């Protein structure tokens, strides 16, 4: 089929239409000659008809195009309206988000996948030094005001693992923040960077610290309370099981506490006692004193322990040693009184008996001292006579040998008299003189011992270093003869009678020199120290020592350690030492091992 010829015509509305050309000459020939006239007559009409139809089609198409264009315009307007609404909604949501972030006062930074800053809130500038021009810069180039050097590394780790990180960080100004690093997820659940938020938790941190401190204090209080409660339970047990009567009474004297010892001591059960007043236990002549005691304690006055009397259920009067203590409330107000009462009836009776015995002993000692003095003094006179007449007898006996030699006597008699006068009489006189000398020494010692108890004491502060130097100087010859080494340490001061303390240490030094071990070089040391208000001295030697069974007896009168030995003395030295120390409140004791030496300790008051 041959294609129709024509042309395209542009219509209004942007559409085009096809308009065919008139029939060509060839087309006219094909229609046949017989009808030439008719064809000639109808050809313009046909072309006109075709053109009309074409125009009609074009007009219809134009109408259709117009309708389509109107529909497209309406759709475009609808889309534009919807788009404008979406833009307004997005703008509103953006404003809401900005206001929300500002209202929450949370510093927020948005980063892209390269850890570059996309945007940030105003609060973020207080945490990290940011300006608007920093948008697009890597977070690593921004100086943070945080003590947190691993911010960039942690951000990269969150972006890698998609697991959020939360940590408390501290700013330069001391403010604490709770920092969270989270992946930024789009609506399509795609990761488009990170969100970093900083919540100011400084107050919360302070509160936590305060709570931690308060909790620690509470734990301590609880522990202390537990200890206190345990102590109270133990104290209650101790009080209830105490051998002393423990009572509690209010300020009116009504008994509110009564332990088992009180039941045993006074006879009333706890049930009975709780219905009584403390004045029911007080003798009539002491009731006023008891009332004064309670008033004094209620006023806060401290009352020292004292001796008083109580009445038992059977009416027996007991001597008691009473200690009273105020019980106070939380503001320190006295609300009750607790007393500890010890039955000292037997002790008081024993003390009175002891006092009587001490008085009797003192009298006996005085009598003994007087007897010693009288006996010594009375024995001294005949002893002097014996000593004198022994001397005269010795002189007379010395003249007898010459008289016997000149006398006209038988030779056998002269020989007997010569033996008597040259041997027996001198030995007898020598024994008499030795006995008299020993008796003289013993009587002198007894006189010193008796006078020691009668001499008045002059207690004063003593410089023991000076005193020992004088004693050593006086014994210089004896020390040199013994070949011993004498060592005197620095000694503390003490309180005592100078004369008698000098005698004490002179006797101890003399004993140490007498009983040195000849098998080794002698060493004597005197040292001292202060202990609990006392001056304690030690005289130590490396002598022969003292056997355990003799260590208590060495302080007895006339006891000698080795009577058969070479050491001289009457056995009164250590007895004199103990007697002198007893009178001054001092003490003496010893430690010794045979063959190793002895240590004599002297304790005296160090307080003036």
Report the average pLDDT across residues: 80
**Largest sheet: spatial strand order:** 4-3-7-6-5
Q: Kindly report the CATH topology of the largest domain.
A: Heat Shock Protein 90
N-to-C CA distance? 158 Å
Number of strands: 19
SS-based structural class? alpha+beta
Which sheet architecture does the biggest sheet show?
Answer: 5 strands, antiparallel
Uncertain ranges? 11-15, 25-34
User: What is the name of the CATH superfamily of the largest domain?
Assistant: Histidine kinase-like ATPase, C-terminal domain
Helix segment tally:
13
List keywords for this structure.
single chain, 608 residues, alpha+beta, Beta-Lactamase, 5-stranded antiparallel beta sheet, 13 helices, 21% strand, elongated
Give a short overview:
The chain has 608 residues and is α+β, with helices and mostly antiparallel strands. Helix content is 50%, strand content 21%.
Structure description:
With about 600 residues, the chain is α+β, with helices and mostly antiparallel strands. The protein is about 50% helix and about 20% strand. It folds into 5 domains: about 100 residues, no CATH class; about 100 residues, PAS domain (Beta-Lactamase, 2-Layer Sandwich), CATH 3.30.450.20; about 100 residues, Beta-Lactamase, CATH 3.30.450.20; about 90 residues; about 150 residues, Heat Shock Protein 90, CATH 3.30.565.10. Strands 4-3-7-6-5 form a 5-stranded antiparallel β-sheet, sandwiched between helices. A 5-stranded antiparallel β-sheet has the order 9-8-12-11-10. Helix 8 runs antiparallel to helix 9, helix 10 packs across helix 12 and helix 12 runs antiparallel to helix 13. It starts with 5 loop residues before the first strand and ends with a strand. About 0% of the residues have low confidence.
């Amino acid at each position: 089929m041959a294609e129709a010829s024509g042309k395209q015509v542009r219509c209004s509305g942007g559409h085009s239409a096809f308009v065919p050309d008139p029939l060509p000459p060839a087309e006219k020939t094909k229609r046949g000659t017989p009808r030439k006239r008719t064809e000639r007559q109808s050809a313009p009409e046909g072309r006109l008809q075709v053109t009309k139809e074409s125009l009609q089609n074009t007009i219809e198409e134009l109408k259709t195009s117009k309708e389509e264009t109107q529909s497209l315009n309406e759709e475009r307007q609808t889309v534009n309206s919807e788009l404008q609404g979406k833009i307004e909604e997005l703008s509103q949501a953006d404003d809401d988000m900005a206001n929300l972030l500002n209202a929450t006062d949370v510093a927020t930074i948005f980063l892209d996948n390269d850890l570059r800053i996309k945007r940030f809130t105003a609060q973020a500038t207080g945490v990290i030094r940011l300006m608007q021009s920093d948008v697009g810069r890597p977070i690593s180039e921004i100086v943070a005001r945080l003590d947190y050097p691993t911010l960039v590394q942690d951000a990269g780790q969150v972006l890698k693992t998609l697991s959020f990180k939360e940590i408390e960080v501290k700013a330069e100004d001391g403010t604490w923040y709770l920092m969270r690093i989270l992946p930024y997820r789009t609506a399509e659940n795609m990761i488009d960077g990170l969100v970093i938020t900083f919540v100011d938790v400084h107050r919360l941190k302070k509160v936590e610290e305060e709570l931690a401190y308060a909790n620690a204090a509470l734990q301590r209080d609880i522990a202390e309370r537990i200890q206190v409660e345990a102590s109270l339970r133990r104290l209650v047990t101790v009080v209830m099981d105490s051998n002393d009567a423990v009572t509690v009474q209010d300020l009116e004297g009504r008994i509110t506490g009564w332990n088992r010892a009180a039941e045993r001591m006074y006879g009333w059960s706890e049930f009975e006692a709780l219905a009584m007043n403390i004045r029911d236990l007080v003798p009539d002549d002491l009731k006023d004193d008891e009332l004064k005691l309670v008033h004094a304690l209620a006023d806060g006055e401290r009352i020292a322990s004292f001796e008083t009397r109580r009445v038992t259920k059977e009416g027996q009067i007991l001597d008691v040693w009473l200690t009273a203590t105020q019980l106070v409330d939380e503001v320190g107000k006295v609300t009750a009184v607790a007393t500890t009462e010890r039955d000292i009836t037997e002790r008081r009776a024993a003390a009175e008996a002891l006092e009587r015995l001490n008085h009797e002993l003192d009298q006996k000692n005085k009598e003994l001292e007087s007897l010693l003095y009288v006996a010594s003094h009375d024995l001294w006179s005949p002893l002097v006579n014996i000593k004198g007449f022994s001397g005269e007898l010795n002189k007379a006996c010395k003249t007898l040998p010459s008289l016997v030699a000149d006398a006209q006597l038988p030779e056998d008699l002269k020989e007997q008299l010569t033996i008597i006068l040259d041997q027996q009489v001198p030995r007898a006189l020598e024994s008499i003189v030795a006995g008299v000398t020993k008796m003289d020494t013993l009587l002198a010692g007894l006189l010193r011992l008796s006078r020691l108890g009668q001499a008045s004491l002059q207690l004063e502060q003593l410089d023991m270093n000076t005193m020992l130097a004088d004693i050593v100087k006086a014994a210089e010859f004896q020390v040199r003869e013994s070949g011993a080494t004498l060592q005197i340490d620095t000694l503390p001061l003490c309180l005592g009678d100078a004369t008698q303390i000098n005698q004490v240490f002179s006797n101890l030094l003399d004993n140490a020199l007498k009983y040195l071990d000849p098998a080794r070089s002698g060493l004597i040391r005197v040292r001292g120290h202060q202990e609990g208000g006392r001056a304690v001295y030690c005289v130590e030697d490396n002598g022969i020592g003292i056997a355990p069974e003799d260590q208590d007896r060495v302080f007895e009168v006339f006891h000698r350690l080795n009577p058969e030995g070479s050491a001289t003395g009457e056995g009164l030295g250590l007895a004199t030492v103990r007697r002198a120390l007893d009178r001054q409140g001092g003490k003496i004791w010893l430690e010794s091992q045979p063959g190793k030496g002895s240590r004599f300790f002297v304790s005296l008051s160090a307080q003036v």
